[in-house]
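worker-3 :: picked Endoglucanase
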Amino acid sequence: MSALHKMVGLVGAIMVAMVITVVSSSSTHDYGDALTKSILFFEGQRSGKLPSSQRMTWRKDSALHDGFEIGVDLVGGYYDAGDNVKFNFPMAFSTTMLAWSVLEFGKDMSSDLPHALDTIRWATDYFLKATSIPGFVFVQVGDPYGDHNCWERPEDMDTPRTPFAVNKQFPGSEVSAEIAAALAASSMVFRQIDRGYSARLLKRAKMVFDFADKYQGSYNDSLGPWVCPFYCDFSGYEDELIWGAAWLFKATKQINYWNYVLQNMPKLDSGNTNGVSWVGGSFAEFGWDSKHAGINVLVSKLSMSTISTESLPFISNADRFICTLLPESPTLSVSYSPGGLLFKPGGSNLQHATTLSFLLVVYARYLNQAKRAVHCGDVVASPARLVQLAKGQADYILGSNPLSMSYMVGYGEKFPQNIHHRGSSLPSLDQHPEPIDCKGGNDYLYSENPNPNLLIGAIVGGPDIKDAYVDSREDFVHSEPTTYINAPFVGVLAYFKSQSS
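worker-3 :: tokens ->
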């Protein structure tokens, strides 16, 4: 590369970094208020019999007979987004991220901590049901095609509530191992609060992990017609198996789980996705599908402390991941909008901004504890630099952006009014007690009127790469909230709440 090209690239990186810094520091935010609302959002996603403590009162009981047609109680859990299906793969990832958020930042949540624990327990109670039959793991409830063809309140839905499970003959290692990770991480959350419940979660986590590992295979192959294209596994199931083992080691300190991580980690250095071979390309990926960067950040703490050996790949891979995010890094591989929002390929872009921001603040903590910095070629990034980048993303989401719009419903003076969400967009049972059938909701779907029910705390898919946002219910890529956008942001907001106070 010529000196001129290097200079142009450096100037471009500096300009992006300046934009991010300016946008993030242009106003201050009430991270405590945003934290409260980010947790409250999950009450709007609840399925099943709602408790008397329910604060989002326009939501009512729904799906009270899930699983009954086959004699299994599958009532509870969360709807993943703006639909009424329970997809256990992203639900489990969201649960793992909520648990990790509490483990890292629970002490900073103050009065929000009990609500965060309730949010986790609503999921783990359901996962105990979904894994109650040895040799079976229920991975989905509801026919997604029937559901997506109807614009119905969850309280009204009359589409098939078909339960889908994996077993020994038709395995689903990715979703089973992610459930194991969620149960293991959550067992640590409840260890000092409810020892009996914690022990039950950990015992089930071990059982489900053993099942996922012994009967290996992707649920794409066994349940593809029903789980794809909604939550297909694109990255293989090896990352979930390692992720589950890492969480089990963290929860148990049993060396067999550590050995499993070490022995299987080389499988993540290369692979084949949809017929395309790749080498080392997934170390920078993290989300409901790919756990690679999360594994390296999680295990890096163990590598820096309890198991100290620089020969392990986790620290170097975590550093490489960080270098893909820093605008000034020579190995930057993400894009930034003019206003400073991080972009990666795929829909619902704010899922990338929230999950990667979570890893930034967590890894910054680990680096501080180890008195380390990240080296990206000649660029040295301190832990404070990682926090600064994460703060820019958080502040952008909360309104420090070219549109001065918060992308969290109910936070700030300006936020999305027409989110792609059935329950929020249809009148509540309090306002409209009569049922609204499958096609009866279309008038509300295509209406330009604001949603009558505020799904407070919901973070939508977000703006496009030019910082533009069309507040349209039909533009689901940008206007639909999901549990896995919100879950990691809970930890991010708790961290910045503690810093601002």
